[in-house]
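Re: weekly structure request thread

Next one in the queue (100 aa):
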Amino acid sequence: MYSRIVRVTTLKAEYETTLALSSNTDKVYNRNTDMSRVFYARSFLMSLTYALHAALINGLYASYIRSRILRVTTLKAEYETTRALSIERAGYSAYLIYSA
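Done, posted below.
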């Protein structure tokens, strides 16, 4: 039972940490897209170079965000499943003790 409690606590901490990291990454991404407007005001060549670079980065970033969202979703599901199993097992243990 103790190992299940530790597992639930670890999953919850990992889920919250991953969620917080995702939020911070989104803020950095938004700041970078605001900076792109400044670069577009410069020469055409500079804008074109930046646009190609941004397209590459945005493609990689979109892939990264999809994997991060998937990881957060998986962690949340795993956490909730483990927690539900722990509660169910605790209830079953209490039932066995009560019925004995």
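The chain has a mean pLDDT of 66. Residues 44-99 form the longest helix (56 residues).
Next request, please.
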